[in-house]
Amino acid sequence: MLRTLMMTAALLSALSTTIFAASPSTRDLAAEDANRTLVVEFYDQFFNKHQVEEAARVVADDYTQHNPDVPDGKAPFVGYFSGFFKENPQSRARIVRSATDGDLVYLHVHSTNGPEDRGQAVVDIFRVDDGVIVEHWDVIQDVPAESANDNTMF
Questions:
Q1: What is the predicted pLDDT for the residue at 6?
Q2: Per-residue confidence (pLDDT) for residue 15, from 0 to 100
Q3: 8 A C-beta contact, residue 137 and residue 67
Q4: Which of 16, 34, 105, 135 is the Cys-Cys partner for 64 at CB 3.0 to 4.6 Å?
């Protein structure tokens, strides 16, 4: 019986070592950092400086858009925001924080349409493939005049 327990313990020990050794982190932090840099630089050029031509460099032609107000594709994306920037020439989007996870870049943003606008809290999620932005999701919430707590949205 003792021999069986010892053999079982040895086997379990060997298996657990193999399992842990076989599952190293597969994250490529250098690639994630490059993706973050690409997205942050694009975001500033596009949403703060309104340089819509920047999309030609980093947005895929078949860009997938999950915001229901904006069409799929690079050209429709540029067209939508060209109109928005004409109507809102003072719009700005201040990145408060960013994070990455694999091919995804997350931005927490304070977006305003002008200096007097309280703005919106935005979380943008971009998927990057081979140095090109290929997909986007967002969640947008108006910044209220009053809050039920003393915490900011940023």
A1: 46
A2: 47
A3: yes
A4: 135
Angle (nearest 5°) at CA 100 between 63 and 18: 115
Backbone φ, ψ for residue 32 (5° rounding): -60, -40
- Check if the beta carbon of residue 118 is closer than 8 Å to that of residue 47: no
Pick from 65, 46, 39: nearest CA to 133: 39
pLDDT at 8 over 80: no
| pLDDT over threshold 80, residue 17 | no
User: What are the structural domain ranges in the chain?
Assistant: 28-142
The pTM score is 0.82
pLDDT tens digits, 91-123:
999 999 999 999 999 999 999 999 999 999 999
Six-digit token pair at 134? 């290929």
Phi, psi angles (nearest 5°) of residue 151: -85, 145
Residue 42 near residue 58, CB atoms below 8 Å: yes
pLDDT > 50? residue 37? yes
- How many CB atoms are closer than 10 A to CB 4? 8
Q: Residues 29, 30, 32, CA angle at the centre, nearest 5°?
A: 60
38: left (phi over 0), alpha (psi -120 to 50) or beta: alpha
* Whole-angstrom distance, CA of residue 154 vs CA of residue 151: 8
